[in-house]
Amino acid sequence: MKYDCLVIGASGMQGRIVVRDLLESKRRVFLADLYREGSEPLLRSHPSIPFEPVDLRDYSATLELIQKVDAPLVINCAEGDWNIDVYKACLAAKKHVIDLGSDIPMTKAQIAMGPHFERAGLIAITGCGSTPGINNIMLKYAAEFFETMDTVDAGFAWDSNLKEFVVPFSIESVIEELTEPAPYIERGRWREAAPLETGVVKKFRGIGSQKCFIVRHPETYTFQLYYKKDGLKNFHFYAGFPQHSLDVVLKLIELGFGEKDPIVLDQNKIRPVDAVSRILARLNPPEGYTEKEVLWVRIKGKSINGTSKEMLMECVVPTVPGWESAGCNIDTGMPASIIAQMILDGNIKTNGSFAPGPAIPAMEFFQELKKRGMKVYQDDALVC
Fold it and tell me: Could you report the average pLDDT of every consecutive run of 10 residues in the chain (384 residues)?
């Protein structure tokens, strides 16, 4: 059988969302992951879908699987540590590739591969989720209304109706964001801050006030890369968490569950952060639990007629009927599925390696978000 996509990391939270959205869009998929457990429910309901184990630490095995499946596009939903290896394997196998993003050094390395992908006639896009992802495309849309953009801030915030802990989008990523030095740009210079020392209260559509922190995010690099020419001198990325969720994450950090250095258990090496990720993946939201997330970008600069201008772009993400178990995590998995289908359908034509934005048609993307229950606002007006 010919497949449209090979989904790596298919058993994880985001991988399962991507796979389901692709299947509901009548796409043919091949699943791969280090672990089969998370894919079992879907494999039972779709027994014809193939699954193979893959360990991204083994480059040769990864390349062999990509060549064997021979799908035109690879969607990498695994943690970002091995994004560059998947990029190299896809380039060698002559396949398009997208992923959910990683840290700034990895993002730089991936975008630097642009000339190689361009010469091969291939598309590579890193950070095809919520943020990076939706926020990048909202900034691309907003940039058309500005002559210059001096200051851009962006981020996410979310809350739930029941004040009970439910696993965020990626517990490993959340722990990294709250513990690792956070770069930001001020007056054109790169600076760093300790995330938990940067708390500030902001107000969000449909959520209200929430404490936010400056955190490490690849948009600090990609926004400057694409918009420095437009005058961008200041940028901060903010993460907002409801207090009941933040308290649990901070306790996990305090107890050492976020550590990446392996420990030996029954003669096996395991990273504490991997163990806690697997354990928390088994938790289901309580009955009646719903979430709402707001992805946002605020821009200050000069309008095309030279006057001062400020704009707020927001994407409001509710819990969608039929997707209750995913909560607002749909805003990471579904955009990856949308972008993948745009590539398969020929609606993204620019070859090379990018962060989201430059190669993605914004309004078409926003319309696909709307079909899936996510609405985009420009100030107080509904864009889509």
Answer: 95 94 97 91 90 96 97 94 95 98 96 98 97 98 96 96 84 87 96 95 92 96 96 97 92 86 80 83 84 97 94 97 91 97 96 94 98 97 92
To which residue do tokens 């200051």 refer? 151
Q: Are 159 and 323 in contact (CB under 8 A)?
A: no
pTM above 0.90, yes or no: yes
List b or e across 155-179, with b for residues whose CB sees 16 or more CB atoms inside 10 angstroms.
bbbbbbeeeebbbbbbbbbbbbbbb
Q: For residue 313, list its beta bridge partners.
A: 297, 378
Q: Which CATH superfamily is domain 134-326+375-382 in?
A: Dihydrodipicolinate Reductase; domain 2 (3.30.360.10)
- Considering all CA atoms of the chain, what is the largest pairwise distance in Å, rounded to the nearest integer? 68
Residues 315, 47: Cα–Cα separation, whole Å: 36
Q: Tell me, which fold does domain 5-130+332-364 have in CATH?
A: Rossmann fold (3.40.50)
List the domain boundaries for the chain: 5-130+332-364, 134-326+375-382
d(CA 285, CA 234): 38
